[in-house]
């Protein structure tokens, strides 16, 4: 079986993107309760030079998103430590290890990690190669199109490929661009023309039409969706339904399960206010893709409940009312 097989009816391989902040264990578990995607990826796991390597491997691959595989994303700038960490992750039976060459955070890039690696193709190659040689499972790279600009775009692509990685995911914005301007999908098409390994397209897939356009315009081998899945948890099912030529109607019961699973995974030690704010954060994304829910956004987000049950008893009926109008 190839690493990025097609789904039935030609549906592309679908990956839930790693996302720092919102894309945590709670979100991955909630998304897994809905399903529709082939694989998930952890938010980046830092591999700093001043930490004991074994203390960092705090990821649960066996059951977190089962039966959907969960890959691990590592972020660091020391080739030896990254190789050691890859070994630790392999021992935890992760199906794949991804090297983060895309995080734009100044805190991260200031330490030479994330998208900082795009300034030095040789270092990128060295780190990726050390990870590839350290483990038997697939190693991949997720990168942006450059740091300040795309001057080293081709060099970084080839450096990654020549390290022996299995495939490359491209988010076609530079570090400096952050998440502001539209993703330049032409660069995904360019990567496809340069590389011999599979290319996964990522960036600005918010609805089915975006997914189809990316596939058509770039010829990428698979799709990775992050923010679009937070806004619309059913986007993977909707993409599958398009290719299978069958109707798909998201059900309110699935949204209820989604929130129940999400809430059940929030740490019991978190203060009540923190739990409410975390639920509000997830709900606020859901509003963005739904005109009817958007009308109820302010009422839910500005509510002053300090008791979690009271907040949920207030918020969920408003969500259901908006959901009923729009589905």
Essential attributes:
eight-stranded parallel barrel; single chain; alpha/beta
SSE run: EHEEEHEHHEHEHEHEHHHHHHH
Number of distinct beta strands: 9
Number of separate structural domains:
2
Distance between the termini: 38 Å
The biggest sheet, with number of strands, parallel, antiparallel or mixed sense and barrel status, is: 8 strands, parallel, barrel
Q: So, CATH architecture of the largest domain?
A: Alpha-Beta Barrel
Q: Would you state the CATH class of the largest domain?
A: Alpha Beta
> How are the strands of the largest sheet arranged?
1-2-4-5-6-7-8-9
How much helix is in the residues? 40-55%
Q: What does this entry look like structurally?
A:
It is a single chain. By secondary structure, this protein is an alpha/beta fold. The protein has two domains: 8-244, Aldolase class I (TIM Barrel), CATH 3.20.20; 266-326, no CATH class. It contains 14 helices and nine strands. The chain has helices at residues 25-34, 79-91, 106-109, 121-134, 153-162, 186-194, 208-218, 227-231, 235-244, 252-265, 272-288, 291-294, 297-301, 308-326; strands spanning 13-16, 39-41, 45-46, 70-75, 97-101, 139-146, 168-174, 199-202, 222-225. An eight-stranded parallel β-barrel has the order 1-2-4-5-6-7-8-9, surrounded by five helices. Helix 7 (208-218) links the parallel strand 8 (199-202) and strand 9 (222-225). Helix 1 runs antiparallel to helix 10 (252-265), helix 2 packs parallel to helix 4 and helix 4 packs parallel to helix 5 (153-162). The longest helix is centred in the C-terminal third of the chain and has 19 residues, at 308-326. The chain is globular.
């Amino acid at each position: 079986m190839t690493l990025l097989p097609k789904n039935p009816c030609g549906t592309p391989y679908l990956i839930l993107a790693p996302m720092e902040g919102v894309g945590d264990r709670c979100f991955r578990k909630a998304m897994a309760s809905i399903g529709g995607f082939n694989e998930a990826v952890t938010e980046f796991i830092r591999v700093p030079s001043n930490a004991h390597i074994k203390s960092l491997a705090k990821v649960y691959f066996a059951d977190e998103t089962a039966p959907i595989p969960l890959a691990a994303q590592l972020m660091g700038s020391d080739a030896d430590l990254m190789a050691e960490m890859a070994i630790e992750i392999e021992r935890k039976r992760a199906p794949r290890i991804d090297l983060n060459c895309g995080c734009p955070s100044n805190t991260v890039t200031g330490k030479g990690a994330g998208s900082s690696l795009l300034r030095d193709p040789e270092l990128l190659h060295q780190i990726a190669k050390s990870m590839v040689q350290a483990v038997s499972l697939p190693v991949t790279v997720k990168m942006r199109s450059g740091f300040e600009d795309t001057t080293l775009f081709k060099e970084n692509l080839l450096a990654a490929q020549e390290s022996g990685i299995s495939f490359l995911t491209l988010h076609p914005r530079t570090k400096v661009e952050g998440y502001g301007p539209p993703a330049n999908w032409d660069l995904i098409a360019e990567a496809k023309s340069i590389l011999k390994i599979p290319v996964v397209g990522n960036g600005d897939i918010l609805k089915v039409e975006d997914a189809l356009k990316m596939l058509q315009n770039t010829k990428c081998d698979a799709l990775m969706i992050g923010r679009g899945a937070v806004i619309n948890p059913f986007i993977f099912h909707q993409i599958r339904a398009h290719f299978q030529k069958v109707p798909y109607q998201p059900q309110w019961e699935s949204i209820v399960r989604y929130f129940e699973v999400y809430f059940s995974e929030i740490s019991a030690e978190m203060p009540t206010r923190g739990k409410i704010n975390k639920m509000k954060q997830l709900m606020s994304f859901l509003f963005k893709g739904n005109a009817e829910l958007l009308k109820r956004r302010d009422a839910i987000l500005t509510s002053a409940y300090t008791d979690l049950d009271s907040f949920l008893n207030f918020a969920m009926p408003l969500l259901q009312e908006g959901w009923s109008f729009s589905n």
